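We modelled the chain as a single entity of 471 amino acids. Its sequence is:
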Amino acid sequence: MLEEEIALAEETARAMRELADTVTYAPPLRLAPRRRARRGSGLTLRDRWVLRAVPFAAAVAVIALALALVTIRDIPDGSVVPPTSPKPTPSGVPTYYAALIKASGEQTAPEQIVIGETLTGKRVATIAPPAGTTFAGITGAADDRTFVVDTQPGSLDPESEPWQPRTWYLLRIDPGAANSATLTSLPIPETAAGTDVNAIAISPDGTELAVAQQPNSLSHPDARVYLRVYSVASGAVLRSWSSAAGGQFFGGTKYSGPDSNLALAWIGQVGLVFAYSKVKPGETVDGSQVTPRTVVFAQIRVVSFGHEPGGDLLADSRLARSLTTGARKPPSPLSCGIATVDRIVLAGDQDMLVCTGTGEYRAAGPLNSDLCAAGPAWNRLGLLEYGLGNGDSDRTLSQYATRCIGPLVQLQALWSDPSGDTQLGFLGLRRSGGNSQPEFGQFKNGAFHPLPTPPTESTVQGLDDANYIAW
């Protein structure tokens, strides 16, 4: 019997050596620990056969796994689904970000992509757009390595012709490799000229891309709005909805800047979250003044993939949350309002919305030239978590106060972990007499921890930079 076991071991070792140069990675095989025999009792003949079979079974399992890995590596198109779980740093945030930033200081310069480390700000790679184009949008999957970007001719200069055609690319990063980033053309159809791309969002597993778009919006502002889900690998339309423009979808028309990666979000792989609102525009008075616009309603809606494709976007979606609209008299509690419609951040793949809540706990009183009031802080804001499902509870994640108002007072989450306990975003509380910019950092356990700000190009950091950054 011993000779047979030795021969089996040698045959197994030889087979493994022949496979070694074809396998790039094989995870360690973890066997359950052997059960200890009770003291005073010997092993039976059956027990001995079981123990002798373990090495043989392990070898067979490893060989089978190796063959499977070789098969995956040799798939002709090389498409392997990326991992669905993020790779967080020890602090709980994604290791890398990808951001759009101008290639030079000229207004008409194209946008390039900068990849950097979230915690240190260290630049890992820079990717230039194809010649004659600019990157026009970026959205990231959950693995922190897979992104979809689109390009348009020319630049994102507000003075240039808006709503240029979009061409789609897959961006994969591997910071440890010799080539740390690769850009691959995708078969997703190019959008037609005159199409407003309202929002883009790649699925958590990186295999599907959702695009909200409004064709012919240049000549027909009330044209139908479409939400389509494409296969990243084949470019095929997997799901599609449309709706007449009776209100504002996905935060409304986008006239300049990158395609929004925050006006649309995935709930796992089973649905999409978007906003729908109706705003009554201001009216001209005496040809010189405009009355304030009136927000009739603002909603967060969810469309699930259980419906047949080709349906109506409103009829096939459900109302998940109504947002606060209109002026509120102090004191008023923190609540998320109209600003949420184009800045949708979900807690991972859960149906929990992380949004900026505002509230005033007393009248501001007279404001000085810095738009700050004397006395205690009165302008309160915070990060809230709203449940979008049935019975989901709400909670306040963090809250802050300031005596000032204006563009430098802002709070905005750009990313959240699956638990909702950690966010990345901007915070600016501008003090009286101060003119400090909002800071980028991590929100955790109700506190804010500043981090190096990803490359930005606006004069006021924060909300203007939201759609330039992806994780």
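As a brief sanity check on the tokenised model: The two ends are 58 Å apart (CA to CA). The chain has two domains: 2-73, 96-470.
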